[in-house]
Amino acid sequence: DTAVSQTPKYLVTQMGNDKSIKCEQNLGHDTMYWYKQDSKKFLKIMFSYNNKELIINETVPNRFSPKSPDKAHLNLHINSLELGDSAVYFCASSQFSGSPYEQYFGPGTRLTVT
Amino acid sequence: QKEVEQDPGPLSVPEGAIVSLNCTYSNSAFQYFMWYRQYSRKGPELLMYTYSSGNKEDGRFTAQVDKSSKYISLFIRDSQPSDSATYLCAMSREVSGGGADGLTFGKGTHLIIQP
């Protein structure tokens, strides 16, 4: 069984479009994250949700809006896509109490903006 | 100065060698230290997780943390070609009231184990 899954795996779209990436985890964790890995392979935190509430919001353009319908799902919606948004986006999850720092990552969504 | 520094490599060693991977960091608030392995076009996979200073061993892997020097290491014994991947160090602060802070990653070291 896949622990953290993301859809789609690949996303190619044009500048100005709006797109969404979905994430689901079946680990029973209550905290989920979005990370961005740029072309130089540098991974950086974007957002974190705990029990559907936003707890981390790094300096990210407000064109990016995360939404958590329940603690097993965290989606990322991106408006007015720009060339610089091209990257791999990873979802991760952890447990708030116990080992919140043990984060488990999904396979990534490779976004290409043309 | 970046918060976490990691030599990107590539680091190429023969099969069976002991591999040493390292990171330095500048933020003394970091308390949790992780090592992730990432294969090409895959998500990072958690290998080791250490709190504060000390050593931790898991099979062929040993993680060391020296907070006084702000230096962490990962050792891989009896390296195998299947260990060829990018190894990322990651760190996090203790958050008051518990809870999860985002991880701060190094840029990763590309490791190649030659058969």
Commentary on this structure:
Chain A is an all-beta fold and 114 residues long. Chain A is built from no helices and eleven strands. In chain A, the strands form two sheets. In chain A, strands 2, 4, 5, 6, 9, 10 and 11 form a seven-stranded mixed β-sheet that branches. A four-stranded antiparallel β-sheet of chain A has the order 1-3-8-7, with no helix packed on it. The mean pLDDT of chain A is 91. Chain B is mainly beta and 115 residues long. Chain B is 0% helix and 55% strand. Chain B is built from no helices and eleven strands. In chain B, β7 and β8 form a beta hairpin. In chain B, 36% of the residues are buried. The chains are: A mainly beta (114), B mainly beta (115). Chains A and B meet through β4, β5 and β10 of A and β4, β5, β9 and β10 of B.
Topology:
The complex is a heterodimer of chains A (114) and B (115).
Chain A: E1 4-7, E2 10-13, E3 19-25, E4 31-37, E5 43-50, E6 53-57, E7 64-70, E8 73-78, E9 87-94, E10 104-105, E11 109-113
Parallel strand pairs in A: 2-11
Antiparallel strand pairs in A: 1-3, 3-8, 4-5, 4-9, 5-6, 7-8, 9-10, 9-11
Chain B: E1 4-5, E2 11-14, E3 19-25, E4 30-38, E5 45-51, E6 54-58, E7 61-66, E8 71-76, E9 85-93, E10 104-105, E11 109-114
Parallel strand pairs in B: 2-11
Antiparallel strand pairs in B: 1-3, 3-8, 4-5, 4-9, 6-7, 7-8, 9-10, 9-11
Provide a short characterization of the protein structure.
Chain A has no helices and 11 strands. Chain A is mainly β.
Which short descriptors sum up this protein?
heterodimer, A: 114 residues, mainly beta, seven-stranded mixed sheet, four-stranded antiparallel sheet, 55% strand, B: 115 residues
Could you tell me the mean pLDDT of chain A?
Answer: 91
Strand content of chain B: over 45%
Rounded to an integer in angstroms, the radius of gyration calculated over CA atoms of chain B is 14 Å
Q: Write down the Rg of chain A.
A: 13 Å
Q: Assign a percent range to the helix content of chain A.
A: under 10%
Taking pLDDT < 50 over at least 5 consecutive residues as the criterion, the unreliable ranges of chain B are: none
* General shape of chain A: globular
Q: Helical content of chain B, roughly?
A: under 10%
Biggest sheet architecture of chain A: 7 strands, mixed
What fraction of the residues of chain A are assigned to beta strands by DSSP? over 45%
Oligomer: heterodimer
Number of strands of chain A: 11
Low-pLDDT segments of chain A: none
N-end to C-end Cα span of chain B: 37 Å
Main β-sheet of chain B: number of strands, strand sense, barrel status? 6 strands, mixed
- How many individual β-strands of chain B? 11
Work out the helix count of chain B.
0
* SSE string of chain A: EEEEEEEEEEE
Instruction: Classify the secondary structure makeup of chain B into a structural class.
Output: mainly beta
